[in-house]
Amino acid sequence: MGILEVKDVGKRFGGLQALSDVNLSVKENSVHAIIGPNGAGKSTLLNCLVGKLIPDTGSVMFDGQSVLGRAPYEINQMGISRVFQTPEIFGDLTVLENMMIPCFAKRDGAFELNALSAVLKQNDILERAEHMLEEMNMADKRGMHAAALSRGDKRRLEIGMCLSQEPRLLLLDEPTAGMARADTNNTIDLLKQISEERDITIAIIEHDMHVVFSLANRITVLAQGTPLVEDDPQNIRGNPKVREAYLGESA
Amino acid sequence: MFGLNKKDTSVLIIVAVMVMLAPFLLNPFPSASGLAQFNAGYPDLMQKFVIFGIFAIGFNILFGLTGYLSFGHAAFLGVGSYSCVWMFKLLGYNVLPGILLSIAVSGVFALLIGYVSLRRSGIYFSILTLAFAQMSYALAYSVLSNPKFNLTNGETGLQVYADDPQWFHNPDRLPDLPHLFGLSMRATYKLDLGAWEFQFNAGYYLCAVIMLACFYLAIRIFRSPFGMMLRAVKSNQQRMNYTGLNSRPYTLAAFVISGMYAGLAGGLLSAVDPLAGAERMQWTASGEVVLMTILGGAGTLIGPVLGAGFIKYFENIFSKINDYVLHSWFSFLPDGMEDAVVFLIHPFIGKGWHLTLGILFMLVVIFLPGGLVEGGQRLVNWIRGRKAKSSTAAHETNPAE
Fold first, then answer.
1. Is A164 within 8 Å of chain B by CB?
2. Touching check for B260 and chain A: CB below 8 Å?
């Protein structure tokens, strides 16, 4: 039994069958990559996992509980954090404030009308946020507006924000899309370090094979809305079906 | 001090001093001089400054922090006014129960409207609030003022009549006007100093003290974790949702708080002048507070207060300049030219003050998107820049080896 179990999921947009019969099992503490050519349904699948879309058929179980029909914030509270293709951070807030918000949310995300306590007196939360920034090597940028960060730093901050919630499953949607080579390599190193040091499962959607093969220990190939193969990286590399799906070569 | 950092404390102290000394500061011209008409230091106008300041401070908590633009805040102002006058009619002229009830009723009203309107964001939210406010206006203007059930007294406006119960009113000991434990809101002490006359009005000082309390509360909200969450809502709702936070309770709380600020302002309007009309709920009144907030600087602490003062000053002072006054100013010009100049300026004064305000608003929005506060900051930076330049220039005259 994996931590995330996707069974027979199907999703149709008008005349387009975006996903059909998707079965996927992500094992605990693995790094599971989902790859596939453009239009294969990777992003649709991810959106079904986090509550942005509700699949027409099938079930999605996280740690034995169904996530279907729950709002994104409820799914997050179950222990799933998501990193977006373009970094989604609080651009108008400082880096430190960005990091404080998920630290607040760790108390079940419950609403609190703490309108009369000062932000700068929340010592435990401040400490946690500072600690996380140090771990992400961003402590020197704590006072900057998050919108002014470089693309790589924004990604780093977003990953740090997700980690500060101590999620059990981290979902990454093309985390290196549009990044310079150096930033890509930094991100790979960061993710490697995270998966080694933490008790965390990572599911990653990626185009860049360099990223996939340096990180993943399990790969699912998606083509035309349905999984083609699921195997270990070394077997995927030489698989003729995968080459066909990507390059249109006949096997 | 007061749980604020140094900078906020100094802002609060500066505002407090200016508000307390307003009768002096707003009366710079001797009362006999021709410029006396630019004096704003009379009770009526000073009361409006602080009351609409409260209104704008509250609006800024919603609009400035969360970015939700409500076009219906005048509804809460009107509800507050009616509640306060009803307390006058039922209990008596003490303003305290009226003000408390206006806060409570507008809070409940804001909870209802906010609960429905906040299901949508962006322009749909604005339209929903506008629709609610116009509905409230229609209710107050006609529906709720029929002989069987007269809650608002229609177009005449709600006021206190001689046959109202006023259970706790004792006309022998208490003034027949709104008062605070016997101190009439109209009580004014006039101080003659040379050519100047300064007026200290009880109603103004009551409103001023309440405004300072509101301002202090707004600073605390801005600097609290709650305020940080509201800014997060404005910045990126998507990330907020994927951080396990439901933004709805935060926006609803902000909406209710700002609705209560508006209700308080409405209650104070009735407290200084015990008459509540439906026109206070009209969409133009809702638009006015939006203008105040943007003109002063949305999302800044002091901006809305400045914006409120700016607009009310124009409304009351610019609109008083008429052709007669203009002729007296330009009488030194030859006859034909005098008429021409007066003809050119005429559309911008008197009833045309809206035109002047509109032009100023456009100029501010185009050139100072951060409002008057940004203008002030640029001015300070410019002065500092000049100082820095002159000091570097001084250095350059004897360079190091």
1. no
2. no
B8 vs A contacts (CB less than 8 Å): none
CA–CA separation, A62 vs A169, rounded Å?
A: 9
Angle in degrees, 0-180, between the axes of helices B43-66 and B247-272, rounded to the nearest 10: 180
**Which CATH architecture is the domain B6-302 placed in?**
Orthogonal Bundle (1.10)
Q: Do B220 and A113 touch (CB under 8 A)?
A: no
List strand residue ranges (DSSP E) for B74-228, in order: 158-159, 179-180, 183-184, 188-193, 196-201
Domain residue spans in chain B?
6-302
Mutate to test the interface with A, among B224, B236, B243 (most CBs of A within 10 A): B243
Please list the residues that pair with A4 across neighbouring strands. Answer: A26, A62
Specify the pLDDT at position B393: 62
- In chain A, whose CA is at the least distance from the CA of B241? A73
Give the residue numbers spanning the domain of A205.
4-247
Residues of chain B with pLDDT under 50: 397-401
DSSP string, A85-104: SS----TTSBHHHHHHHHHH
Q: Kindly report, residue by residue over A110-167, the tens digit of the pLDDT.
A: 888 888 888 877 888 899 999 999 999 999 999 999 999 988 899 999 999 999 999 9
Reported as a single tens digit per residue, the pLDDT across A83-108 is 998 999 999 999 999 999 999 887 77
Residues 6+ apart with CB under 8 A from A171: A46, A49, A50, A80, A81, A82, A83, A203, A204, A205
Write the pLDDT tens digit of every residue in B13-54. Answer: 999 999 999 999 999 998 888 788 888 989 999 999 999 999
Can you give the CATH number for the domain in which A208 is found? Answer: 3.40.50.300
> Which 8-state DSSP code applies to residue B336?
H
Is 80 exceeded by the pLDDT of residue A51?
Answer: yes
Confidence label for A251 from pLDDT (cuts 50, 70 and 90): very low
Give B399→chain A minimum CA distance, Å: 34
Counting the structural domains of chain A, the total is 1
Nearest chain B residue to A76 by CA: give it. B244
B242 touches chain A (CB under 8 A): yes
pLDDT of residue A249: 54
Phi, psi of A207 (to 5 degrees): -95, -40
